[in-house]
Design goal:
With 47 residues, the chain is mainly beta. Helix content is 9%, strand content 32%. The longest helix is centred in the C-terminal third of the chain and has 4 residues.
């Protein structure tokens, strides 16, 4: 049976989070007015 792997990296760049699930990659960030760099959807938008 294949063992799926997921990994989350909390970056040192404001609130940027990078996640890898199997062969998929996603970036989660906060908007600039909340201290992020707006490089991706917010955690709530991601869900």
């Amino acid at each position: 049976m294949n063992n799926p792997t997921s990994k989350t990296i909390l970056n040192t760049r404001n609130y940027l989070t990078e996640s890898k699930m199997r062969n998929h990659f996603t970036v989660i960030d906060e908007p600039k007015d909340l201290g992020g760099d707006d490089n991706g959807p917010t955690p709530v938008e991601h869900l």
